[in-house]
Amino acid sequence: MLEPRPLLGAQVTELADGVFVAMSLNHAVADGTTFWHLFNTWSEIHRSGGRGCELSTPPPVLGRWFPDACPVPVTLPFMKVEDIIQRVEFPPVRECFFHLSTASVRNLKAKANAEMTGTAQPQADPISSLQAVLAHLWRGACQARRLPPDRETICLLRPVGCRGRVQGVPQHYMGSAVTLGVAKCTVAHVVDKGLGCTAWLLNQAVASFDEAKTRDALASWHQKPHILWPGFGSDYLEASGDGDPTDIVVAASPRFDVYGNDFGRGTPVAVRSGAGNKMDGVVTVYPGRDGGGSMGVEVCMSQEALARLTAFMEVVDMA
Description:
Strand order of the largest sheet: 3-8-7-6-4-5
Oligomer: single chain
Number of strands: 8
Number of helices: 7
Shape: globular
Structural class: alpha/beta
Order of helices and strands: EEHEHHEEHHHEEEH
């Protein structure tokens, strides 16, 4: 018999010159869109005193959404905690938070699109600011890790949202409504083909989203329920034969309103991710504190590789 465990935790720490507000929400029940909707709503209710609060955003849609062919409730074949929770030991990593100014982001986007102008590559939409920034980071990571040119490398985009892409999923759906986008190629392709070509791979990973395949995958999941474990050896994050990671995994989004919350002491001066799943290659993206299209990028990597990546990233004129 499984014991009940909390899906949400919050902690407020009073500092000498401020307050640190932390919240954790299990990804099995909510994604980043829901997380920040909840966090900002919490701050708005707190700021109003909790009585007669008229929220500035629509309330979350609490109704569960399932494909028509999915029987509800779904029977899960998990009898022990170990069947659904694993404590994975990751090699030690260092963290670095890069601040990309509005001008830096704009220049990367312009460069990526200029390089793809006139090429024969099909392109449904122009390369976005995020795709250009991630392409620059992916190229830098391959060089910083000193990977062999013929090695395959993957950029996994975890937050490809289903809201607005899958019919029936409300815009303010409270749940986990994301799927994966995968771009893969050789290290030589990423390093030698230029920023535009690498960004185009990410562009196509998002453009290739298929609503029918997503519905089919969801509809068949109940037949063989499974859990994705974080860590090396999984289908989406691999390691090379000598133990050095080759991939990057992108989490969060610059579209999340991470600086809009105010608990009565002003808006945040900084945002950071928690201690969970800190493995080599994890990249967490936030909007920049200064707004205007700036971005903040949190990167986990080995100490040696991160030092080389920092030098590479400096050439885009960090703010």
